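Ticket #4471: complex job returned nothing on first submit. Input attached below:
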Amino acid sequence: AQKVTQAQTEISVVEKEDVTLDCVYETRDTTYYLFWYKQPPSGELVFLIRRNSFDEQNEISGRYSWNFQKSTSSFNFTITASQVVDSAVYFCALSELTQGGSEKLVFGKGTKLTVNP
Amino acid sequence: DTAVSQTPKYLVTQMGNDKSIKCEQNLGHDTMYWYKQDSKKFLKIMFSYNNKELIINETVPNRFSPKSPDKAHLNLHINSLELGDSAVYFCASSQGLYGEQYFGPGTRLTVT
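Support reply: We reran it on our side without changes. The output follows.
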C-alpha cells in the first residue's frame, strides 16, 4: 500500500530563514501524483501544488519551491525567507489508485512549522 | 463565492445522538470526498462519490452513511455517535482522476 512519511514532526525557525520540509513516499504505481497542502491555524486545508510522476522538474512559486526526485522517492518543499504567516501544518500527499479505478489521497502525518518573529 | 462549503462549522452533541453534516461544491466537479482529521491531525479518507455513485468506502463503521443527492452535494449522516467520533470532518471535491482536491472549511464535531 502507498505510504507517505514526513519525518519532521515540528520545525521552528526565525523569520527570514529558509526551511525545507521533507516528504518521502512509497508506491508501486508507475503513474501517480504528489501534492502539498497547507493547514494554517484557522484550520482550512489549502492546496499548494500537484506534481505528476513523469515530471521531475523543480517548481518555483514565489518563495515556495518543490524538489521532486524519483530516485529517492522524495518530494521536498522549501520556503525561502520564511514569514510568520507561513506558520502552519504542511501535509504531503500521494494519490493512490483503488481497485475500482478511482483515486484517493494518502496523507503524511504533517509537519508543523512555526516561524518566529 | 465559496468553492466548497460545509455546515455546520461546529457541532457539539451527546453520545448516542444522530447528526448530519452537509457539503456543497460549486466548482462543477464530479467527485466528492469525506475525510476525517483526528486529534493528532492525521487525515484519512472515509468516502468518495463520483457522479452520485459511491466509489470509495474505507472500512468506516456503518454508523456513518454518506448520501449524494446530486453531484454538487455530499452529506454525511452519523448514527449513535460515540466519543471516538470527535474529530474534524472535511469535505473535498475534484474533477477527474488525479485532479487536485479542494477542501471545505471543516466541521469540528465534539461528542460528549
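Chain B has a mean pLDDT of 92. Closing as resolved unless it happens again.
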